[in-house]
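Dear support,

We are seeing what looks like truncated structure output for some complexes. This example has two components. We would appreciate it if you could run it in full and send us the complete token output so we can diff it against ours.
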Amino acid sequence: MNANTEALVGRVLRASTRGFDCGAHSRSIGDHHNFGAFVKAPITNDSNTYAVGLIYKVEIKDDQLISELVMGELVPDNILRDQRDNRMIPVEIKVLNVGYYDRYGFVPSLPPRPPMSLADVWECTPAEVDSFTHSLDFMRLVLGAAEVPSDDLIAAALWYTASLHEDRVAFMTRAGRRLARELSHDLKRLAHVLSLIRP
Amino acid sequence: MYDEQSPKRLGVVVGGSLSKGLTVKLEASESVEDLAVGRYVVVHGAAGKRFFCMLSDIALDNTNPAVQNNPPDMSDAFLRAVYMGTIAYATITITPMLLIDENGQVMPVKTIPPHFTDAYSATEQDVNDVFGREDDKHFHVGAPLELQETKINLNLKKLAERSIGVFGKSGTGKSFLTRVLLCGLVARGTAVTLIFDMHNDYGWEVTSENGYNVKGLRQLFPEKVTIITLDAESSKRRGAKYDFEVRLGYDEIQPEDVALLRVTMNLSDAMIDACYTLNKLWGSAWVRRLINASVDDVQYVVDNSNIAGGTLNALQRRLQRFERWDFLSEESIGESVQKIVDYLVNQRKSVVLEFGRYGNELEAYMLVANYLTRRIHQKYVELMEKSLGDDGQKPPNLVITIEEAHKFLEPQVANQTTFGIIAREMRKYNVTLLVVDQRPSAIDEEVMSQIGTRVTALLDNERDINAVLNGVSGAASLRQVLARLETKQQAIIMGHAVPMPVVMRPRNYDEAFYNALTSPSSSDTRAFSGGKKARF
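Here is the complete output from our reference environment:
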């Protein structure tokens, strides 16, 4: 896989096998940082294995100057623009691991090791997303993750994936049926998720 | 209707047992409304084995009962597609009937397939593997539900060698079913039949319920069937070509003939005993003498026997009803029995006895049927005993067809009538019964147990259903099937002549059927496209 042709999301700040956080410059924030986007990062000491995750939180940090500017009155536009464009305002992106791939293909399970700090985090290509979501098994990891807004996250991931399919309704129906099996014990939650993904 | 050549996956086996049937979870794409009890399902087991099963129950289930309290909005196509087959799904119960091994050999089923084995709708090949192909010994009587191009073929030899029962509520097509069975027996020469044709349904043309005229056996097989009549006037009026008019002499009626009428004529035990006493006292003319007896005659009998006067008077009043029947003559004027036996045994012709207007008089029907059957059965016993050691001398299989059979075979009289004896002794003397009845529960249990092949249209009385299914393997599942047959054009065949119970849509009794019967080469009716159809 050629990572250089894909959009760089950021670099790893901290990581575990459950997920990782990466940082990026506010200036570089774009569609590839969207909530629910599929991203990947090489795991520690293995250039052939990538952790695959879903962005579940995008956090723009502040500092003392920004706090002061926020409270300031009559701040000129050029100062605001300068602060936004030229100052180093860190953006922190939190990723939930939902699988990994190695030389044998995609595995919808937690990666064997977390990515190393400062490893590049890339957006997955449409082909990779398509391949990875073929089985929809990743949804179990999302639904079982208590620390993330899993219902909205899975809906966002599915909407993104559906956009890659010619027949979006058929894909969403397949995903809905899988969700029905996974959430058959919790019908209220199922109804909520289905309402989020109804095509 | 689906493709009968390639199997259609219905679902997967998820549980069950051999005795209670297998539970199959239906595919989400399979509409539960398209299924019907009685349909065949084949489970493809390991190593090429096929478990041939009958669908016996259909149920709706869910993975979470809470869904019943708050059902999803099924008008939303997306929600419908998501919920159906996942949270809410259908299951079917299928009863394993037979096992078809990898060589196509059919054998009784003694085990079940493992979990999660695929279940398919039966194909034409599956059905043919079980029911064989139509040939000289197998007669096409109908098609399984959903497999209209497939044939259910009865083994005629097995059909004739034990008694047959055709049951069903009034108006469900028992006569048409019976006619189809009789056509098979006559066409293939498996047996000769003596039909006590109560309502003139079998010998000559009749008008079906939908207004079409359908041919009788004599018209279809003029060389193999003869009509005799009790009511020549009726036969002439209908244009039925009868060969002779049956006349019975009063002097031929024996106490046993009257005893059969015990229930119908409300005869007490004392009256039956009186018949035997009178026969002993007056000889063969006892019936006529009793009918004409004066007060002095009655008193003479009372004085010289142990019969009470009241009993004799009551018996006299009842037997005087015989005078209404023109087919009874003072003395025997013809050898009706001998003629019938000659047709049956020497000419190997089937005989249809039309009752004409007497068909509405149950007592007349029973008297004549029992009178003739008792004597013909006796002849058969003699012929069979003579033929011991020489099979070539054996008379042909005789199937005696009676309607309102429970009147002949109800527990009170079954032990005393020839019909009861025939039903019990089965093929010992090459005589069996074809009983047509709407109240099988009224037939003696022992007699019912001896009926080899049962063809049953819709029955909705619990006792009748129990009676028909008594002793049948897998009765619990068949009960559901039997109670849900359509009022017409559906019947279940079970017993000796079929390898397993089968719900079928009988053949149309129409021109195509006639052609298939009378054409020496063709037994296939599929090519026929014309002709009026008479459905039962």
